[in-house]
Structures are given as structure tokens and as C-alpha cells.
Amino acid sequence: METSQPHVITLELAKKLNWLRAAVLGANDGIVSTAGLVMGVAGATTDNGAILIAGVAALVAGSISMAGGEYASVSAQRDSEIASRIRHEGIQRKFAKDEHVSPMSAAVASFISFALGSVLPIVAITGPWTEYREAATIFSVVISLAITGYVAAIIGGAKPLRPVLRNVAVSLVTMAAAYGVGMILGVAVA
Fold this sequence. Notes:
Elements: H1 11-44, H2 48-89, H3 93-96, H4 103-126, H5 133-156, H6 161-189
Helix pairs in contact: 1-2, 1-4, 1-5, 1-6, 2-4, 4-5, 5-6
Subcellular location: Endomembrane system
Transmembrane segments: 20-44, 50-68, 106-129, 135-156, 168-189
Keywords: Membrane, Transmembrane, Transmembrane helix
């Protein structure tokens, strides 16, 4: 009779999981928030230039913001773990730092993945298919978030249906709300 071994997370695995978590979160957030923003602008105007500017601004600001947030979050977690090890194990600070995940790797992963995720809705909404741009954006966002939800679930060892549905539902609500706001404010301003 075999007994199951406890699941041990090594430092190397923790570093990979930290990077993966930051990358998946960054990509999802890049897709959803940029799609929401460009759909909101598209609800207010048909000016492709204005939509493109808003999308690129969202890509730049979001990438920097996500990277900064990841860096601060992972740094705070690491600092807390180091302080705990120093207090409880009596380890000197210089030795306690060696065994923790890198805030910089999480920040870089988040920055790159947010930027890459943002590109899809920008291209979909500003492409040459202006008559169908909202539908093209919704379709591309739903497909891409279904893929990221599926991949994240499989890598994490979870069943994929719930993460896929969650990703898709959040994106649809985000885009619908932003488009509605754009339509309301676009009419009010015009």
C-alpha cells in the first residue's frame, strides 16, 4: 500500500510559480482592462485614432502599474518572511535573503505579460474591420481569456472549466459596462 507523499514546494518551484502567477495575472489584466477601456472609448466615438491612443496609453500605464504593484507586493511578502525567519530561527539578515522569491522577476513577468495581453484588444478594435470592431474585440478577448484560464488551470493542476468561465464572465461584464458608459457619456458630451 502506497502512502501519498506530502507536496513539498522547493525554492526553485516557488520562484517558477511566482513568475507564472505574475505572468498569468498580468496577461489577464492586460486583456480585460485594455479591452474595457477601448470598448468604452469605442462606445463614445468612432474615431480610430482616439481609440488607438487610449489603448496605447492603457498598455503603457497598465504595464508600469502592474509591474510596480507586483514588485511592491512580492517585496512586502519577502520582507515579512525574512523578518519572521530572523525572529524565529535566529538567522542573520544576509543569509535569510537568499531563500526567497524575486520581486524583480515578478515585476518583469507582469510588465511583459500585461503589455502582450493589451495588444490583442487594441489590434481587434482598431483593425480594418470597423463595421465589426466591437464583435471582433469581444470574440478575440473571450477566446484569449478562455485560453489563459485553461492553461493556468492545467499548470496549477485544477479543473479548467471554472477558471475559463470566470475569466470570460469578468471580461464580458467589463466590456459591456465600459461600452455602456462610453455610449452614455459620448452622447452627453456630443
